[in-house]
């Protein structure tokens, strides 16, 4: 599938520009094994790059003119780097223009290029096709024009592009995972300091299966803002009783439980989830290191229950997908992945059982919600890189 993507992108470049591309880059989408809604609560996340990629075929120009073909959308966008770059109503180009604006500011960048890109990362399913696009281009410019950027700088440029040209106030996890991914490794990342460690993620006789609910409810932004306020309120109360607590990272379950009345039902539930989820990420790393997949699966399912019942960011469709696999012996654990209110569930399943499972759950899902389920079997792969024949 990767070969085919590269071949198709490359051929499309030749058709568009009457020349072979001088460079090919691959930039992956990502999953997050565990650690949800803790990035803004001083916890860790545990993402990994996957074997679904944005492929970029690109050649430098001798001037400042740029032409980019979005093959999957059958759209072309042309501009000159000498002109002022501003966000455009053609949405996809903003991810790239935002990157170029950063490079203009930081490196006086004015190197034109021709590019074609195409992707196997599903768009808008929570696998971060957007980070794959922006980091893929930033990585490619850095390599071709020898800009001397570090991987961390590339990830930050991708993030800032979304903030400034797309208008999405995203965290750093997606870009970081896409750029720093390594085959069969998860990244334990502190989203505040960008401190990170790689940990073994060899799933042996298990595999990761994503079930795409195909829904996206609109409370994502409002839900997110409410949660941020609630946990901030909770942390202030906890700190007033336990001065040794600086962040949720050094807050214990006992402390939260001791303050249950004062926190009130809602804020208590939110804080309890955060404290437990921070612990679960650590436990998941231990489980992975020890190849204890039953334990890992249990942790994932506990995370889902917490996100659904305590943090309240799930939805009927995601709850259904997690509940539907709860009694399947081939499934060790499942949870919603991402910010919530839609997107995919991530499942730890026995290798070989996927097809039967997908058929069974798809039929149930269709009869309950009238929606077709999509599914993706993913492997943990390396981060953004240049592809050499
Ligand atoms: P995701 O969860 O996949 O990151 P986003 O809404 O953040 O969802 O980003 C999706 C957007 O990124 C698309 O609407 C499009 O503008 C851009 N994009 C992603 N992949 C492609 C592609 N293959 N071709 C063109 N644009 C793409
Ligand atoms: Mg995105």
Written description of the protein model:
This protein is an alpha+beta fold and 389 residues long. It contains twelve helices and 13 strands. It has helices spanning 2-17, 91-107, 129-144, 151-166, 173-180, 220-241, 253-258, 260-263, 265-289, 293-310, 316-325, 354-369; strands spanning 23-32, 44-45, 47-60, 65-70, 75-80, 113-119, 185-190, 196-200, 206-216, 331-336, 342-350, 374-378, 385-387. The strands form three sheets. The chain has a six-stranded mixed sheet with strand order 5-4-6-3-1-13, sandwiched between helices. Strand 7 (185-190) and strand 8 (196-200) form a beta hairpin. Helix 3 crosses helix 5. The structure holds adenosine-5'-diphosphate (ADP) and magnesium ion (MG). Magnesium ion is lined by residues 128, 130-131.
Short descriptors:
alpha+beta; binds magnesium ion; globular; 389 residues; six-stranded mixed β-sheet; four-stranded antiparallel β-sheet; binds adenosine-5'-diphosphate
> What is the helix fraction of residues, given as a range?
40-55%
- Based on CA atoms alone, the radius of gyration comes out at 22 Å
Question: Approximately how much beta-strand content do the residues carry?
Answer: 15-25%
Q: How many helical elements? A: 12
Beginning-to-end CA distance, first to last residue? 16 Å
Low-confidence parts? none
Provide the residue-averaged pLDDT: 96
Instruction: Please tally the β strands and state the result.
Output: 13
Strand order across the largest sheet: 5-4-6-3-1-13
| SSE pattern, N- to C-terminal | HEEEEEHEHHHEEEHHHHHHEEHEE
User: From the helix content, strand content and strand pairing, which structural class follows?
Assistant: alpha+beta
**Strand count, sense and closure of the main sheet?**
6 strands, mixed
Morphology call = globular
Bound molecules: adenosine-5'-diphosphate, magnesium ion
């Amino acid at each position: 599938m990767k070969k085919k993507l590269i071949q198709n992108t490359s051929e499309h470049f030749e058709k568009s520009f009457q020349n072979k591309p001088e460079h090919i880059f691959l930039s992956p989408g990502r999953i997050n094994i565990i650690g949800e809604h803790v990035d803004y609560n001083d916890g860790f996340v545990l993402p990994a790059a996957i074997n679904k990629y944005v492929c970029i075929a690109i050649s430098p120009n001798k001037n400042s003119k740029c032409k980019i073909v979005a093959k999957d959308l059958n759209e072309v966008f042309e501009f000159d780097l000498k002109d002022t770059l501003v966000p455009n109503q053609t949405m996809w180009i903003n991810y790239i223009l935002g990157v170029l604006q950063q490079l203009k500011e930081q490196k006086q960048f004015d190197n034109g290029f021709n590019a074609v890109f195409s992707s196997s990362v599903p768009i808008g399913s929570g696998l971060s096709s957007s980070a794959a696009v922006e980091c893929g281009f930033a990585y490619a410019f850095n390599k071709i024009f020898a800009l001397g950027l570090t991987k961390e700088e590339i990830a930050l440029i991708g993030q800032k592009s979304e903030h400034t040209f797309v208008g999405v106030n995203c965290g750093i996890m997606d870009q970081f995972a896409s750029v720093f991914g390594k085959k069969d490794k998860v990244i334990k990342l502190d989203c505040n300091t960008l401190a990170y460690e790689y940990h073994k993620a060899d799933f042996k006789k298990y595999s990761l299966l994503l079930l795409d609910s195909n829904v996206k409810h609109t409370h994502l932004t409002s839900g997110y803002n409410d949660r941020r306020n609630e946990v901030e309120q909770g942390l202030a109360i906890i700190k007033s009783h336990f001065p040794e607590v600086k962040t949720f990272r050094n807050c214990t379950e006992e402390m939260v439980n001791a303050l249950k009345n004062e926190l009130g039902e809602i804020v208590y539930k939110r804080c309890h989830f955060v404290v437990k989820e921070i612990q679960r990420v650590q436990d998941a790393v231990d489980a992975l290191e020890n190849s204890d997949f039953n334990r890992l699966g249990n942790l994932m399912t506990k995370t889902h229950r917490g996100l659904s019942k305590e943090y309240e960011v799930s939805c009927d469709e995601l709850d259904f997908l997690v509940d539907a696999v709860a009694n399947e012996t081939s499934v060790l654990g499942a949870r919603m992945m991402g910010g919530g209110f839609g997107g995919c569930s991530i499942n730890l399943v026995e290798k070989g059982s996927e097809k039967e499972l997908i058929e069974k759950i798809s039929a149930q899902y269709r009869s309950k919600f009238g929606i077709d389920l999509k599914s993706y079997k993913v492997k943990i792969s390396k981060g953004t890189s240049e592809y050499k024949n």
